[in-house]
């Protein structure tokens, strides 16, 4: 039987003001995603009830956004945390294939528009697709070995790397308030690691059991460190290519996920065991249907999260949306305690608290930056 005890990541979707997740994980503005559902009105100019009342309800949009994020985290963790799981490339390939099919279905239904496939653009997007593969693979491996709360806390470190990457590449700057949030992020990660090591050291009186637990943690932290830099490289690289080619959000999603499929399939063929016996170990009969359903949902979930974030942005303010993105990390971390066997200790709870505060401080800092930019008057020479 498989042992499901652990966290999450996801295919790439259009991104908004916040990075990833993700693996996670990740939200989007979905500027080109505009389902006609959100524009239903009666001939008298009154909103079509009750459906339009629901899609224009701020509380419903926030709950939908949070539930979409939590469900993706829980499903991804469930799939990858089997004791014999070793088909990560295959899983990610299926995820990307389902995501592409979902995007094409939305295009067919008129929910979004895509540009015609362009070979020259594809050549520019291929390196970004490789970075996407590196990001989601390292994220998936980190999830195998780390709990949901720890994974969620450590993903904050990606924000720091991206911020300083932008400073180096674009000459941006880090404000004191943002720097304070970074300090809290690092502190919460240190507390989380300390709590994890203490929990592993006390996991059993037998030295072999303790050594195995610590080895698992060290492996998870190594993958997590790799994921932080891979995710940052992907976000920074994607932003530069989008700016260079003037690519819209959904076209970027389409190219990066489509071009990642052959890389993932090749990786699976070269590095993974496709024997019947190994498939039987990875997909035990008692959980086979739920695993396959989870794999399909994780691919389609990219669309769900993107719509939910677009919905939240549309019916609330940008300030509310930014704060919801920061506050959403708390229920995602708590889901690790609720759905999996993540240890509840003073250290783990403290780490989540400081990570939660760091997210609020960061969101508030970015809101203040935008407000100052709007207030700045243009000058003429």
UniProtKB/TrEMBL annotation:
Query: What are the boundaries of the signal sequence?
Result: none
Tell me any Pfam family this protein matches: UAA
Q: Which InterPro entries match?
A: EmrE-like, SCL35B1-4/HUT1, TPT_transporter
Give the location in the cell. Cytoplasmic vesicle membrane; Golgi apparatus membrane; Endoplasmic reticulum membrane
Membrane topology classification: Multi-pass membrane protein
Q: Where are the transmembrane segments?
A: 85-104, 124-140, 146-165, 177-201, 221-241, 253-271, 291-309, 321-340, 346-365
| GO cellular component terms, semicolon-separated | cytoplasmic vesicle membrane; endoplasmic reticulum membrane; Golgi membrane
One GO biological process term is: transmembrane transport
* Keywords tagged on the record: Cytoplasmic vesicle, Endoplasmic reticulum, Golgi apparatus, Membrane, Sugar transport, Transmembrane, Transmembrane helix, Transport
Main subcellular location: membrane
Family membership, please give it: Belongs to the TPT transporter family. SLC35D subfamily.
Q: What does this protein do?
A: Involved in the import of GDP-mannose from the cytoplasm into the Golgi lumen.
> What does the record note on quaternary structure?
Homooligomer.
UniProt-recorded name of the protein:
GDP-mannose transporter
The source organism is Gnomoniopsis smithogilvyi
The organism's lineage? Eukaryota, Fungi, Dikarya, Ascomycota, Pezizomycotina
């Amino acid at each position: 039987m498989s042992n499901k005890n652990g966290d999450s990541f996801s295919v790439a979707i259009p991104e908004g003001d916040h990075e990833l997740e993700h693996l996670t994980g990740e939200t989007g503005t979905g500027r080109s995603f505009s389902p006609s559902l959100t524009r239903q009105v009666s001939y008298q100019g009154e909103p079509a009830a009750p459906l339009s009342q629901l899609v224009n309800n701020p509380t419903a949009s926030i709950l939908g956004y949070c539930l979409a994020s939590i469900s993706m985290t829980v499903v991804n963790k469930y799939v990858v945390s089997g004791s014999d799981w070793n088909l990560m490339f295959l899983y990610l390939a299926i995820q990307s294939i389902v995501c592409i099919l979902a995007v094409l279905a939305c295009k067919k239904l008129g929910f979004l528009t895509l540009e015609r496939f362009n070979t020259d653009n594809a050549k520019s997007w291929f390196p970004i697709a490789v970075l996407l593969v590196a990001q989601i693979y390292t994220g998936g491996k980190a999830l195998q070995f780390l709990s949901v709360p720890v994974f969620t806390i450590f993903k904050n470190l990606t924000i720091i790397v991206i911020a300083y990457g932008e400073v180096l590449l674009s000459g941006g700057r880090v404000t004191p308030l943002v720097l304070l949030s970074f300090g809290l992020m690092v502190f919460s990660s240190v507390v989380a690691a300390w709590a994890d090591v203490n929990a592993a050291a006390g996991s059993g009186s037998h030295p072999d059991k303790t050594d195995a637990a610590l080895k698992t943690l060290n492996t998870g932290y190594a993958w997590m460190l790799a994921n932080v830099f891979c995710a940052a490289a992907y976000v920074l690289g994607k932003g530069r290519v989008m700016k260079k080619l003037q690519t819209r959000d959904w076209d970027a999603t389409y190219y990066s996920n489509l071009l990642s499929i052959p890389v993932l399939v090749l990786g699976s063929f070269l590095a993974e065991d496709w024997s019947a016996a190994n498939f039987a170990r990875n997909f035990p009969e008692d959980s086979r249907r739920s695993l396959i359903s989870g794999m399909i949902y994780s691919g389609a979930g990219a669309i769900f999260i993107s719509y939910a974030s677009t919905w939240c942005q549309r019916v609330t303010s940008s300030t509310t949306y930014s704060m919801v993105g920061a506050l959403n990390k708390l229920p995602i971390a708590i889901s690790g305690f609720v759905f999996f066997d993540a240890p509840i200790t003073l250290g783990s709870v403290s780490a989540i608290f400081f990570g939660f505060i760091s997210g609020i401080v960061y969101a508030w800092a970015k809101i203040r930056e935008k407000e100052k930019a709007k207030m700045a008057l243009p000058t003429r020479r």
